[in-house]
Amino acid sequence: MAMDHKPALYALLRFHAEIGGRIKDNKLQALKLIEDMKHVEAVLHMLEPGFS
Asked: Which of 2, 16, 30, 41 is the most exposed place for a label (fewest CB within 10 A)?
């Protein structure tokens, strides 16, 4: 007797796509945060040239 797994497959495919979207969003957010950090570091260097 074969079980019908379609509902589970559809749910897993939807979850897989959601995870993929979240990874993409997080990568974009990480890039923005890196740029923000660089700007903050630039100001720190202006205020304190020896800042490391």
From this structure: 2
